[in-house]
Design brief:
The chain has 89 residues and is of the alpha+beta class. Helix content is 45%, strand content 20%. It binds zinc ion.
Amino acid sequence: MKCPKCGRTIPGVDMIGPTVGNQVVGPLLDGYVAVCPRCRSILGVTVDPSAIAQQVTDAMGALIASQSSHLLAQLRTTIEEAARTTGSK
Ligand SMILES: [Zn+2]
């Protein structure tokens, strides 16, 4: 392939990673920057799919954890109310 910037033939591109800032659409995502090995021009940016998968997994885990602690609090309240009701009889 030829570099569109310097026009020299290059065997490939250097992948520089792992962190690419994407401050326009959201938080930082891990990714790679494709760089011409001759002139160091940035030819493209790609996001690391495994990093996205990890972020989704982390978010799901945090969501489930927050939900279950909420459910536990609700369950505790129900048990305490039941105990109070039973105790007053
Ligand atoms: Zn180049």
